[in-house]
Backbone:
């Protein structure tokens, strides 16, 4: 795995800060991200014991995790896409193709933007799962920790490599 | 990267295995202070060769060195020193030249906006024209001014003068000559024979993916 180049990360920071002032879709993306994540939390916060064996609830939970990841995708959309007024959306990689920025460093940059929020959300979900599970069922299941770690933290970060 | 080497750019047996078109054992060694021309028929591989130097994901065998160091896996270093001027390069269409320079200049630690404005003025190109409204010649001048403001050392101009009038060509080459005094080199691709003999120092012919030896331009076509 290549090292993080802090000079490139700093350059990207300055570039995207400048981008905030000229890319109006950023506000919309943030709004959609927050909405999707909040809606998905309604079901995600239910501990594993509450939907274990219930096929319909399991399907709904999977859909909610997908919705959560879609919300995280919108959080990083401004670092992946840009759209000029009246034009179609374009991939930011095309704009940066002949600039002194590696694609891998751009991936690391996007990951750095979601590690903290994903980490906080994952930790909160795990805490709620454990408390709810103990309160209602008197026990906790290891999947109460594993599933949020994988689907709320690892998956959205690793999917940036795709 | 140290720039105290004799050759600024070196290619050693650079080949590609692309099914559609393959480069075959290309070698070159370029020193600073000269304008080098690569010419050849359409489809001979000129742009493909340049892309091996500039593209981050270029798949080639052989070695490409910039200031004596292998560039593989060092795309950011290559683009720090290489100023690429080409029609295929993407900029922000709905922004003016100045806005493009201000936004994209952030990606270069040595970008100087005053140099950009100065060269745009020298080339009689407005900094307040929206990029998509610029003519082809204006876009090339903008890209060159941007590359100069980024303190590039190697200027790569891919078919920039095609379809341009003689006034544009004369201005462009005057500008490029002026740059050479700053320990830079210029690589251009063109089909125009008079341009090659009049304005460049060395020329090599690309044929079926293979680059010939560089010879003095003044002898080209004789």
Residues:
């Amino acid at each position: 795995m290549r090292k993080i180049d802090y000079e490139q990360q700093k350059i990207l920071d300055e570039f995207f800060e400048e981008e905030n002032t000229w890319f109006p879709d950023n506000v919309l993306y943030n709004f959609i991200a927050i909405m999707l994540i909040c809606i998905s939390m309604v079901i995600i916060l239910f501990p594993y014991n509450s939907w274990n064996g219930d096929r319909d609830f399991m399907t709904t939970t999977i859909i909610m995790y997908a919705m959560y990841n879609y919300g995280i995708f919108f959080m990083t959309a401004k670092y992946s896409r840009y759209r000029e007024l009246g034009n179609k959306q374009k991939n930011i990689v095309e704009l940066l193709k002949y600039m002194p920025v590696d694609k891998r460093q751009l991936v690391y940059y996007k990951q750095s933007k979601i590690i903290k929020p994903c980490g906080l959300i994952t930790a909160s979900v795990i805490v709620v799962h454990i408390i709810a599970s103990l309160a209602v069922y008197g026990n906790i299941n290891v999947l109460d920790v594993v599933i949020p770690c994988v689907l709320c933290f690892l998956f959205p970060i690793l999917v940036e490599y795709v | 990267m140290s720039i105290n080497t004799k050759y600024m750019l070196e290619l050693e047996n650079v080949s590609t295995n692309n099914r559609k078109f393959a480069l075959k054992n290309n070698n070159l060694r370029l020193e600073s202070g000269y304008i080098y021309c690569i010419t050849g028929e359409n489809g001979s591989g000129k742009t493909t060769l340049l892309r091996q130097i500039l593209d981050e994901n270029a798949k080639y065998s052989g070695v490409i060195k910039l200031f004596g160091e292998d560039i593989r896996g060092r795309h950011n270093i290559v683009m720090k020193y290489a100023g690429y001027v080409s029609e295929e390069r993407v900029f922000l269409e709905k922004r003016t030249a100045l806005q493009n320079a201000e936004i994209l200049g952030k990606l270069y630690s040595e970008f100087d906006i005053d140099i950009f404005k100065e060269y745009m003025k020298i080339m009689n190109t407005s900094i307040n024209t929206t990029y998509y409204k610029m003519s082809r010649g204006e876009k090339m001048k903008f890209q060159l001014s941007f590359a100069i403001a980024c303190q590039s050392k190697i200027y790569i101009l891919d078919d920039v003068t095609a379809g341009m009038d003689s006034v544009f060509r004369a201005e462009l080459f005057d500008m490029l000559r002026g740059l050479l005094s700053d320990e830079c080199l210029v690589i251009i691709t063109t089909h125009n024979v008079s341009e090659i003999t009049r304005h460049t120092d060395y020329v090599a012919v690309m044929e079926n993916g293979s680059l010939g030896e560089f010879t003095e331009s003044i002898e080209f076509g004789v």
